[in-house]
Write a structure and sequence with these properties.
By secondary structure, this protein is mainly β. It has three helices and 33 strands. It has an 18-stranded antiparallel β-barrel. Strands 18-22-21 form a three-stranded mixed beta sheet, with no helix packed on it. A two-stranded antiparallel ribbon has the order 1-2.
Length: about 500
């Protein structure tokens, strides 16, 4: 693969990606559906500069303590010993969390936009003979659809069940193996998905939920090799998962689609059902990642080929009213990460070259399918500072570069952006944090201030604001009418 001498950076990777070029042009895929984006949460990866684990128990383990994105909460339950025949089986008690969420969209038209309850349960244990297991599931119920008639019937996803991490672990042939539904996290940037290419995302609320909610576990077979400061990993995903998005507005009836549906409403297209690849061997995903810690530098490189978890809108009827069908294409990705702890600051960077991704054309309505293939390089660099006391600051610069840029797509050849996150912990278990993400190509930004209070052990109450601004075709500006306030209470056990 010929890497040309160009640099590009990203803190967000989107589906038909990037920022819009002209707010007055009604593009097909002008609005971005991102698969890599900045949020206030950090991925569950080791801190840069830390010693690499000597085994998979240390790196992946069985997650004995309930965790919330951003830190551990609670104490790990003590296992029980059960005698089943001649095999000693270790079974942990149920752990998980319960959460209640309320949100009101205050931009016109104002409406209650979320009244959701969530319960996630999991357990893990040991069958003996070195074979371990984990089982988890989550159920959500949103009562908002019964409290108002703002949303169209097709957009009312009241109840949802997801099988979470459910797998077997064992060691054989000098390798550690994991088989089943699992999270595979390759990225190491704070709050970003650049190199986190394996996970599919639940984007029905854009990138607003925490990472443990955003990531969708994959059905995968994973083999790992550990040797001092070296770690090798190989994965095969025979039944890939794909990004979940909301429902579009049906312009033939009253009401609205979901608040964060990622594709543009103009010029009032008809969007058909998503076409997902069949469960064939040639539609599986495969990847290899190598990681080494040397002289305090945490370095990794990977290769990954997959059916793109983000759908691209293919135009099936070229004349207005336009008709589009979401499709998934095979893409190839290679990249790497680095991290270094300098004491008062932690440096992290990631870069990913992607080949085969399609983008929608806006300047050629006569094109047969309305898409064009564009190779990209996404990269980001960031510093995490301690400002003393209980105050932290994270700053990141990101970019996407298009090779052989086609002027008929919305993004410019080079798209740049920055993110800043400031946090402070106050007496009485209060914490405040603010995240700002902004495009440097145009006025397009997202602001997310949030306050949280751990009022009892394993109990947290949060209050926050999600605000968007920019052109209607921008990554954040497309949600200018979805500004909202929210409240959340959560109990971990």
């Amino acid at each position: 693969m010929n890497f040309r001498p160009y640099c590009a950076l990203v803190a967000l990777i989107w589906h038909p990606p990037l920022w819009a070029a002209d707010p007055d042009i009604p593009p097909v895929d002008a609005r971005i559906t991102l698969t890599q984006a900045a949020t206030v949460d950090a991925p569950n990866t080791p801190e840069a500069g830390a010693t690499l684990p000597a085994s998979k128990d240390e790196l992946f383990g069985a997650d004995p303590a309930p965790k919330e994105a951003g830190g551990e909460i609670g104490v790990a339950p003590q296992p029980q010993q059960l005698d089943v025949g001649n095999t000693a089986t270790t079974v942990n008690k149920l752990h998980g969390y319960a959460r209640g969420e309320l949100a009101k969209t205050y931009a016109s038209p104002a409406h209650l936009s979320k009244a959701r309850g969530t319960l996630e349960l999991g357990s893990q244990g040991d069958f003996g003979q070195g074979v371990r297991w984990r089982l988890g599931g989550r159920i959500d119920y949103d009562a908002v659809y019964g409290l108002n008639d703002f949303y169209q019937p097709s957009a009312r996803d009241r109840a949802d069940f997801q099988l979470r991490e459910t797998y077997l672990d064992w060691s054989a042939g000098g390798l550690d193996w994991r088989l089943g539904r699992q999270q595979i996290v390759w990225g190491e940037m704070v709050g970003m998905f650049i190199a986190d290419v394996v996970s599919a995302k639940d984007l029905r609320e854009f990138i607003l939920p925490d990472f443990e909610t955003l990531r969708i576990p994959q059905w995968a077979a994973r083999g790992e090799y550990f040797d001092a400061d070296f770690h090798a990993e190989m994965i095969w995903i025979p039944l890939p998962g794909y990004d979940r998005v909301g429902k579009p507005t049906d312009f033939t009836s009253t009401g609205s689609g979901t608040d964060f549906y990622p594709y543009p409403p103009a010029p009032t297209p008809r969007i058909l059902d998503e076409v997902k690849p069949g469960n064939r061997p040639d539609h599986g995903n495969f990847g290899v990642r190598l990681n080494r810690l040397t002289r305090g530098w945490d370095l990794s490189g990977f290769f990954y080929t997959s059916m793109n978890p983000a759908a691209t809108l293919y135009r099936s009827v070229p004349l207005a009213p336009y008709t589009y069908t979401p499709h998934h294409d095979r893409i190839w990705q290679t990249g790497g990460t680095l991290g270094k702890d300098f004491g008062d600051a932690v440096l992290k960077a990631e870069a990913v070259y992607t080949r085969g991704r399609r983008f929608s054309l806006i300047a050629d309505p006569a094109d047969a399918d309305g898409v064009v293939e564009q190779d990209t390089l996404d990269w980001a660099v960031g510093l995490d500072f301690s400002l003393g006391g209980d105050t932290g600051l994270n700053g990141q610069f990101f970019q996407r570069y298009f090779y052989d840029h086609n002027p008929g797509i919305v993004p410019q050849q080079t798209e740049n952006g920055v993110s800043l996150r400031l946090s402070h912990t106050f007496p009485g278990n209060w914490k405040a944090e603010t995240l700002l993400v902004r495009s440097l190509n145009r006025r397009d930004w997202m602001l997310r201030p949030k306050a949280s209070w751990e009022f009892r052990t394993n109990w947290k109450w949060s209050l926050g604001l999600d605000a968007f601004s920019g052109p209607a075709t921008g990554l954040f500006g497309q949600y200018d009418a979805q500004d909202r306030v929210y409240s959340e209470i959560r109990h971990d056990f």
